[in-house]
UniProtKB/TrEMBL annotation:
<feature type="signal peptide">
    <location>
        <begin position="1"/>
        <end position="17"/>
    </location>
</feature>
<dbReference type="InterPro" id="IPR001283">
    <property type="entry name" value="CRISP-related"/>
</dbReference>
<feature type="domain" description="SCP">
    <location>
        <begin position="160"/>
        <end position="312"/>
    </location>
</feature>
<dbReference type="InterPro" id="IPR035940">
    <property type="entry name" value="CAP_sf"/>
</dbReference>
<dbReference type="Pfam" id="PF00188">
    <property type="entry name" value="CAP"/>
</dbReference>
<protein>
    <submittedName>
        <fullName>Golgi-associated plant pathogenesis-related protein 1</fullName>
    </submittedName>
</protein>
<dbReference type="InterPro" id="IPR014044">
    <property type="entry name" value="CAP_dom"/>
</dbReference>
<keyword id="KW-0732">Signal</keyword>
Amino acid sequence: MRLSAILVFGCIAATAAVDKSTDFGMRMVVDAYESVCWYEYLKQFPNTDNSAYQKCGTQSSQIQADALEEADGTEKDYFIKNLSSEMDKLPSDYEECSSLLASATPDYKKASRNDPLKDGGQKNYPFRGFSKCLMKTLEKRHGPQALKAVDDERISGSKSVTGALLERTNQWRALHGVEPLKLLKDLEEAAKEYTSELVMMDCKYKKSNSNHPNRKYKGKKTGEVLDSGNYVAFKFADSGYQIANNWYNEIKDYPFPEGITEENIKVYGKVSRFTQTVWKNTEYVGFAYSEFTDCNNFVTVARYYPTGNTKGGFQENVLPPKE
Ligand SMILES: *[C@@H]1O[C@H](CO)[C@@H](O)[C@H](O)[C@H]1NC(C)=O
C-alpha cells in the first residue's frame, strides 16, 4: 500500500511542477502529522478513539494534494496555513510545534521518510523543525516504543489488516482477563470462502446460514461476526485496529452485570460483536478481509470456535473489564 501512495504522490509532483524539495518536505510533514495522530488515537491502547483518528488521519494528505494544485509559488504558504489549522485535532502538547511549521527550510540534499524519527541533529531536511518536534513530543508522551511502532507499522508498513485485527482483539480480551484467541487455518479458509460469496452478492452483506457446512468445524457450529465499511482504506493495517475497536465499542450498550437474558434479548443485536470478541470460552478464530471493488467498500468475516453468544452463557463468558 505504501508503494501506491508514493506512486500517486509521484504523479502529482510530475504534473504540478512544484519545487521538488517543498513537495518532498510536505510529504514528510504529512507523514509525521499522521503518525502522531495514528499513535495517539489508534495505536495507543486502551485509549483508542476511531473518530478522533479519522479526523486527523486523512486531512493532511488532502491539504498536501490541494497545495500542490496551486503550483504558482504559493503552495508552501497554503500548506503551512491549512496544516496549522489542523493542529487542534492533536492533544494540546503538540501545539508548541505549530510555530516551527512557518520556519520551513526547503533545501535538502538527500533525506528519507524516517529521518524525523531518527534525527540525531546531523541531517538537514525540509520542515525539519516541525517534524522533529512532533516526534520528540510523541516520544515524551509515550516513550521510545511509540517511535518504534511508527517506524515498524507506518514507515515499513509490515502489518496486515487481519494481523492488526487479531492483535487488537487479543488486547481487548486481555483487558477482560481472558485468554488470547489463536488463529486456525480451517476457520480462516471458511471465512475467506464466505467473503468471496459476499463479494458476489451485489454490495450487500448478510449473516451466513448457520446450517451450512461452511459454518461448521469438527461438526459443531462456529460463531460469526461480519463488518463492512471503508475504514481509511488505503492504510490497511489501520483498518484492522478500527474494525476491532468498533466491535468492542458495543460494550457501551452491554447490560452488566446481568448480561443478555430473556428479558433484555432486544439488546443482543447491538452488542453481539463485542460479546463474541471477549467471549471466554472461545479459543480459535479465522479472519478474512476483502474489497468489494465495485462498491467502494470492504467486508470482514470472522469465524470463532467454540462459538460464543450461546444462550444462557453470557454472565459466565462476558466478564467486566479489569480496572
Ligand atoms: C485550506 O484553507 C482554505 C482557506 O482557509 C479552505 O477553503 C480549504 O478548504 C482548505 N483546504 C483543506 C484541504 O483543508
